[in-house]
Structure formats: C-alpha cells, structure tokens
C-alpha cells in the first residue's frame, strides 16, 4: 500500500476533526432540542412538566447501551460506515417526530433515536486515536468536547426558540432540515481512507470474535482506575444535565415568571463549559487529571449551592460555575480513558460514555422525586448526595494513582 504523504495526512486529519465535530453538533442538537421544548411538549402532549423530562431520559437510556454495540461493530467493520449510516437514518427518523400524535409515540421515536445517536460518541475518540498523530490527539479531544458543548447549547436554545414561535410539526420539520444539511457535510468531509482496527484483519470464528469482544469489555472493567473514571463521569452528568431540565420549571414559576424562550436562555450557561473544554488540553498537560477533578468538584458544589440564593442573577452565576466544573470533569475523563486504553479503544470509550449517559437517564427520575417533595430546593438536596458520591470516587481514584506511581518508582 502506498504510504501517505505528510501533506495528505495533515489534510486528512484536519478533515476528520472537522467532520467529527460537525457530527457531534448534529448529534447533540438532536439529543437536546427537546430539553429546550419541555414546557411546550408538556402542553402539546397533555402531560406534566416533570413527565415531559422523560423524553430526554429515555433517549439517554437507549443511547447508553447502544454505545457498547457500536464499539463492537466499529472494531469489526471500521469506524467510517457506522457513523455515516447511523447519521443518515437519524435524519430520516426526524420525519416520524413530525407525525407523532401521542406522548407514547414521541417516547418510542426518542427511544429509537437514542440508539442512532450513539454511533458518533462511541466511535469518535477511538477514531481520533487511530487516525491522528499523537501531537494532534489532546487538542482534537478538547475541540471535540467543545463541539459537544456547542451542540448542546445550540440544540436547547434552538428548541426554546421554536417552542416560542412555531408549532410542533413545523419545529420537527426544521430539525429534520438542519440534521440533513449537517449529515451531508459530515459525509463529504470524512476521509475515505482509514486505518482499520487490527481486529478486522484477524481470521477467527464467530465464537472467538464474541469472546474477544467480551474480553475487551472485561479488560477495561477490571481496571480500577478505569472503573472510577466511568463512575466520575456518570455521577457528574447525572446531576448536571438534569439540573438544567428542572431549573426551567423553577424560573418559569413565581417569583421569576420567565417565558418559555427566556427560560431556555439558562442554557447559555453552557458557554463556560465550552471555554473550559477548550482550555482543558493545556490544563491536563500541565497539572494532570487528578488535581483538575478536585477543582471541578469544588466548582460544581459551589455553583449548585449558589442557586439557592433567591435571585435570578445568583442562579445564572451558579449554573455558569457548575457547567464549567462539569465540562472540566468530562474533558478529564475523556482524555484519561482515551490515553489509558492501550487496546480495545472503542470499547474503553463506549464503556465510559455508557456510564455517562446512563447517569443522565437515571438522574431525571431520581431528581424528579426531590422535585415533587420540595421543588428546586429538593433538587439541590438530591444533587448534594450525588456530589458526595463523586467526592468518594475522586478520592479513591487518587489513592489508586498514588499506588501505581509508587509501584513504578520502586520498579
């Protein structure tokens, strides 16, 4: 096979980063547009505001477990095809949302979309690790996480703007159009040549393949540092993403009385997370992941407590601080998992993201219990318990890292 020239390789790497970042924006617009439309969904489908949050939870649930499937599939057939096919089917599935008549039908389509949304996050980090030069890797990961944040902001604000001005059918038609344009761009930008995972070249029986896949997941789950990174990401997302769902209900009620669209502007607080994601590569290189985990935990704790102050300004500042802490945590976890995985890379990333989105899906029903008891004050109490668990997980991760470093120095 002809060796790629440096110029071609650099061009292909740039196209790959752009393609996966645009794919990420498309995925997160589709995932989170409904979060910006929760009050409108509650009214249109005649359910309570708290029930409407399930539209996000069920999608996160199927997304979480589908990540494991795509990790195996991409190790078998390559990274390119699963991403492209899943995105085109995702675009087509938005047509079903246009014609959804009942809340049950909406939930069923969102369950399907969760399975389609999983391909890009499951494969992207492994794709980067295989296709990019090491000097590109940390920077590409940081830019990719920043794209996640931008997609999340765009989706939620987009949803709030549509809910304020458009009907449900028109809104979903617009989501279909935006998705179609994004998917076409991704398909055009993705380099056609890819370095195939080594496992594709192996000539083994079906039973042997299944065992290899199972062993890959077990290999990462048997690593205590990997397990703790998975738990850290899952707990952080369990709290943060669902706080954003319930805060809309809080600031639309008295004494704030914000309109539907104005309430969704709280999602602009994600911008601090975008900034933290962009700087995370430099910070991780300079300070390491563990000190940043501790800083991020303090930020999420302070930000959450600040929202108890009974002013809109305090709530906005609190969410800016929490979002910064969360995205710093997410960036550290992503980089930690990607760099620690020496084999079965897609499986390592997919296990992390499975825990991450499983946390999001469980956090909605969990915090809903606290919301029903004491509304926003209850949500803060529920969040404190998650932060306490997060503190324990980070402390344990520090102990394992210190033990590993001691063994290396003795060796």
Automatic annotation (TrEMBL):
Residues 16-400 form the Major facilitator superfamily (MFS) profile domain. Keywords: Cell membrane, Membrane, Transmembrane, Transmembrane helix, Transport. Gene3D superfamilies: MFS general substrate transporter like domains (1.20.1250.20). The chain crosses the membrane at residues 16-34, 54-73, 80-100, 106-128, 140-159, 171-191, 228-249, 261-279, 291-309, 315-339, 351-370, 376-395. It is found in: Cell membrane. It holds the Pfam family MFS_1. It is a multi-pass membrane protein. The keyword Zinc does not apply. Belongs to the major facilitator superfamily. This is MFS transporter. It comes from Shewanella metallivivens.
